[in-house]
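stage 2 :: seqdesign
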C-alpha cells in the first residue's frame, strides 16, 4: 500500500488547490461584476453553452419543438433533454407535450422569468465587455 502524506488544510489552501472565487476575477471599477447579490450576478443556469442556446432561440420564437431545437442547436436527443429539463426546473422554460396522431410532440417556450434571466445575463456580459474595452 502507498503511504498517504498528511497535509494540513492551510497547506492545501496555499497550494495548487487554492483558487480565488470567480467574482474576484472580474472587477469593474473597484467592485466585482458578479459578486453575490449583485444585480449583475452571473446566472450559472443560463451560462452553460447549450442552455444559453436554448434560451436565446426561444427568446426570438414564441415556441419551438424539440426537433426544431435539436436541429437548430445541432445536438443529440439526450443532451437537449438534460439541458431543457434544467431550464424547466429553474422556471425559465415551459414544456408542453402532446400527440399528433400517434407521434409525441414536445414544445418549449420561454417564461417571463426566463426572459428576465436572459436580460440580466446579457446585461452582465455587456458590462464585462465594456469593462474590458475601458480597461
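stage 2 :: out
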Amino acid at each position: 500500500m502507498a503511504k498517504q502524506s498528511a497535509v494540513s488544510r492551510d497547506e492545501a489552501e496555499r497550494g495548487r488547490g487554492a483558487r480565488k472565487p470567480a467574482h474576484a476575477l472580474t472587477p469593474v471599477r473597484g467592485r466585482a461584476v458578479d459578486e453575490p447579490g449583485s444585480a449583475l450576478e452571473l446566472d450559472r443556469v443560463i451560462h452553460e453553452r447549450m442552455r444559453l442556446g436554448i434560451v436565446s432561440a426561444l427568446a426570438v420564437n414564441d415556441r419551438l419543438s424539440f426537433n426544431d431545437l435539436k436541429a437548430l442547436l445541432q445536438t443529440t436527443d439526450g443532451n437537449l433533454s438534460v439541458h431543457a429539463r434544467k431550464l424547466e426546473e429553474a422556471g425559465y422554460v415551459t414544456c408542453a407535450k402532446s400527440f399528433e396522431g400517434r407521434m409525441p410532440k414536445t414544445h418549449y417556450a420561454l417564461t417571463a422569468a426566463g426572459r428576465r434571466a436572459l436580460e440580466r445575463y446579457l446585461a452582465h456580459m455587456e458590462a464585462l465587455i465594456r469593462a474590458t474595452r475601458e480597461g
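stage 3 :: structure notes
- Helices lie at 9-14, 44-47, 49-59, 66-73, 77-89, 112-134.
- Residues 112-134 form the longest helix (23 residues).
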